[in-house]
Amino acid sequence: MKYQNLIPTVLFFLLLNCSPVTAQNADSLLKYMDNLMSAPKDKVATMQMTLTEKDGKVKTKEALLKQKGKDRKMYKYTKPESQAGVSTLSLPGDVMWLFMPAFDEPVKITFLSKSQAFTGTDFSYEDMDSRSYTEKYAPSLKPSADPENYTLELVPRTKKSNYSKIIVTLNKANNYPIKMEYFDTKGTYFKLATYQYAKKGKYWYAKEVLMKDLKKGSSTKIVMAEISFDQGLKDDEFTVKKMME
Amino acid sequence: MKTITGKTLTYRWLIILFVIFSTIFAGYELKNLGIDADILRSLPDDDPDAALLKRIGKNFGGNSMGIVILETEDVYRTAVLEHVRAITDSLGQIEGISSVTSLTNIINIKGKESGFEVGRLVDEYDLPETPEALEKLKNNVKANEMYRGSIVSEDGTSTIIIFTLSDSADVRTVAQTVLAKTQALNIPEKLYYIGSPMLVNYISDLMRRDLMRLLPIAFILIALILLISFRSVEGVILPILTAVIAIVWTLGVMSLLDYRMSMISNNIPIILLAVGSAYTIHVLNRINQLRITNRDEAIRKAVEFVMIPILLAAVTTMIGFVSFIFGSYLNMIMAFGIFTALGTFFASMLSIFFVPALLDVTTSKIRNKNLFTGKIKKSFLSEKLLLRLNVLLFKHPKYVLTTWTVLILISIVGMFFIRRSVDIQDYFEKGNPTREAERIMVEKFGGTKPVFVLFEGDMQNPEVLKTMLEAGEYMEQSPDIYTTQSLADLIAQLNEAVSDEMGIPDDQEKIEQLWFLLDGNDALKRFVNEDLTEGIIISKFKSPDNNSKKVFAGYMNTFIEQHSREGCRISITGMPFVDITMDRSLINSQIASITIAVIFSILLVSLILRSLSSGFFSAIPIIATITILFGVMGFTGIPLNIATVLVASVALGIGIDYSIHIISHFNSTLKITGNARLAIEDTIIVSGKAIIINVISVSTGFLILVFSEMVPLQYFGLLLTLSMVGSSLGAMTLLPVILILAHRKKNKDHFNPSL
Questions:
Q1: What is the CATH number of the domain that holds B619?
Q2: Which of A86, A108, A119 sits opposite B114 (nearest CB)?
Q3: Within a domain: residue B117?
């Protein structure tokens, strides 16, 4: 009888004790992940994008990437040849500039919808958004039998998202994501991103990301080549004038 | 002949076993028989318009587009927008749907002072709620022709949600899921569904429903008529059994040859039930007429007697069906002709071989005299009707002839009023949801008949794109084209947003770089191919009127002749163009099939009966009937369409049977008695009874089609019934009168009124 009375009490304290710990862990794990991903002050790389259609047709794109912090990012496209010289510049406050050499003048583009595909890839502008995951999503830790990885469930903090949740498989040893499963607003699993990490100097970085659109059957592979970190890029490297050079 | 019938009885068990095993085999094959309600697939590949339409449909996904129409009082209300968003989200979830475009997710590119804004027309996460915000949305829609009349109707009462199926999608499954998911939302606004996938699914359902509903009714009614006529179990079971086996064999062969049931071949079971039972009716009727007590002898004699007329009747019916091969435009009509002819052949063979074999093993060796003695004389048909008919024919042959002549003359006038219809709206009854959807699309969204202008050349070449833009503007000057969409429109719009300059840039490099903004856009696949060597202008044609379609074809051909050149080849196709050919083919096919059917029937009857005059005589009643049939169509406004175009030849094929039975009976009796009057009287009494039973049962089968949910089939059933009644009346009145008048001069003593 005594034990029977004791069980709910123990359970209550256990649950009371567990919940905040789990939440705190989830938050800190996501922060670790964010920190890892945004650890370098700046980076310069060649980004190779391989787009594979459902029927097996392949297209490639290549761009020179320069990034400083989270908010300053410049892509200068080198491939395909017809689009060589086309550049985009992202600046703080969701501002994006586009320069097409044939037009001489740069134009400011405002992307009001983040669900659109990023330059024809399987990534959306929401996926490529520079804001941290912590800013965009509320995490919770999910039970996992995997001894090497955590499972985090990310739920968008606002309703203005393409996703209802993202399930992140996070490497316990290094805190980098190795897999992200995307669920649409109706809760259907429809995109999968897998990451391969490499270490350059003191930084871990996603050397290769493969995004598969499970509904369309297409995929996009992004490979970071010739990457270098902390080159001391100044803010004035990220100006419209520089983009046009 | 004697040998054949003798062997039939000798090998009766072999025949029965063969029929049983073949039926089991064919029946097993039925499980693979699918339904194909897609008219586009039935278009012939040798017609350039149809072939191009199919090619464009395949390459640009034009045939895999479905539309949900939402109709309400005012679309510009938050609640309505929420429902549009809910439908958009639901459709987007469906496996097999690759893209969805609606008011709540359509892209909006707006030029601004310092650049341009790419966003949605409506923020799907933050729908407009205040009257001001809703008014602003309304004004944005009205100001942009990409939305006005394309996504939202000009009067703001309807909006459409367009979805595209992926290449591998199962059309039926997707369409059914679309219906289930959108209806499960329980939204108060009216929803309508249109577009190829939804139409194919809807027509497939109608076909299935028609078959499941009408076939059993036809069975029951024909069984009742046979029971009343023969008053015996075998008289009911054998004709129906023959027809059922013929149906199973025919559909089994269709399945085996990988054919599918179309809107037209869906009628094969009902037609074969009607036609296929007829031959057995003649066999049974003849056995009943014979006053022979020995079963085997009665069967043998009866079959010997009816074999030639049955074979002749079957072959002429088959000619009627096979005549569709010549001149018919749609593949499904050809398939219908071939398989119905095959079914007719099966039914006739079964009546000659299987029915005697079965009768031989199921009935007693010695026949009951009461079965046949005096029955003919005492039946209502022979006593009350046929005897009186004989009196009428011999007393007033010229009155009868005059009546027919007047009817034919009136009908010839009516023939000039026949209208033709190839419009899909006419397939459905008034108030039918698909017809309503079609009406809304025509009235508020510029129609549903797609028009495609294909450009072959470099799709990034400024000159090609300028011609494309010019072609679009030229098309929009036609009163039947509401709006056009093309790659050139997209490039011009982007150019304006980026450079503030209107139109297509002169520099190809600019176009190639603008492509950066288009890359990966799903909508692009609707306008340009992967290799950028082909692009299309998409439009819709408003008017169902065929003359308007012809005018538009001429108008567009002028533009094409002037602008098509090396490096920029232009061609046009679409349903209006297919409709023109289909409309023309209705006439050609009608003339070709009737001519072929008439010539072959006359030749065949002349050859078999070894008398050219018999051949001509047999054709007179049916030609008269077909003339009256066309007259009725002209006066009542029943149009010539893909179903009614079949009636005349089918009527000719089946209707000539009655004349064949009359002629062959008359010839054989004349040979025996040498008295033309007696021969005619006996023919009317004996063959007339079989004809009346047959007409009632066959017509009942056809009349069931009046309850079909598809209007062309209702007319088909009605007109065939009319033809059957007309041709039987012709065979029993017009033909005997001609025989009377022809023989009266030669043998005056036979036609003495005192006799």
A1: 1.20.1640.10
A2: A108
A3: yes
Tell me which of B184, B201, B218 is where a domain ends.
B201
Number of helical (H) and strand (E) elements in chain B, helices listed first: 27, 10
Tokens of B321: 């069906």
pLDDT by residue (tens digit) across B583-594?
A: 887 787 788 888
What is the pLDDT at residue B3? 67
Residue B186 falls within a domain, yes or no?
yes
* Domain count across chain B: 4
The helix or strand, by DSSP H or E, that contains position B309, with its residue range, turns out to be: helix B295-322
Chain A nearest-CA residue for B105 = A113
Report the CATH number that the domain containing residue B544 is assigned in CATH. 3.30.70
Q: Does the distance separating the beta carbons of A111 and B520 come in below 8 Å?
A: no
Q: What is the pLDDT of residues B407-428, one digit of tens each?
A: 999 999 999 999 888 777 777 8
Contact B513 A119 (CB under 8 A): no
User: Spelled out in words, what is the top-level CATH class assigned to the domain A2-244?
Assistant: mainly beta
- Residue B89 has its nearest CB partner, among A97, A102, A186, at A186
**Integer Cα distance of B101 and B110 in angstroms:** 18
* Exposure class string for A80-104: b at 16+ Cβ within 10 A, else e: bebbebbbbbbbeeeebbbbbebbe
Residues B65 and B186 reside in one and the same domain = yes
**CA of A112: which chain B residue's CA is closest?**
B119
* Extents of the domains making up chain A: 2-244
Residues B704 and B661 in one domain: yes
| B665 found inside a domain | yes
pLDDT-derived band at A6, boundaries 50, 70, 90: very low
- Cα–Cα dist B472/B469, whole Å: 5
pLDDT level of residue A71 (50, 70, 90 thresholds): confident
**pLDDT recorded at residue A87:** 92
For residue B119, what is the nearest residue in chain A, using CA coordinates? A112
Mean pLDDT value of segment B441-458: 89
| Residue numbers in B near A121 (CB within 8 A) | 520
Contact call for B89 and A120, based on CB within 8 A: no
Mean pLDDT for B190-217 is 87
d(CA B319, CA B342): 11
How many whole angstroms separate alpha carbon A8 and alpha carbon B120?
53
Distance from CA of B111 to the nearest CA of A (A): 9
User: From the list B95, B119, B519, which residue is nearest A120 (CB)?
Assistant: B519
Q: Within an 8 Å CB–CB cutoff, is residue A57 touching chain B? A: yes
Owning domain of residue B711 = 377-416+609-755
**Chain B CB contacts of A97 below 8 Å:** 115
Whether B120 and A102 lie within 8 Å, measured CB to CB: no
CB-based contacts of B289, cutoff 8 Å, min separation 6: B302, B372, B376, B686
Task: Please report the pLDDT score of residue B752 as a whole number.
Answer: 61
Among chain B residues, the shortest Cα distance to A189 is held by: B93
| B453 domain residue, yes or no | yes
What is the tens place of the pLDDT at every residue in B308-324? 888 888 888 888 888 87
Give the residue from chain A lying closest to B499, CA to CA.
A103
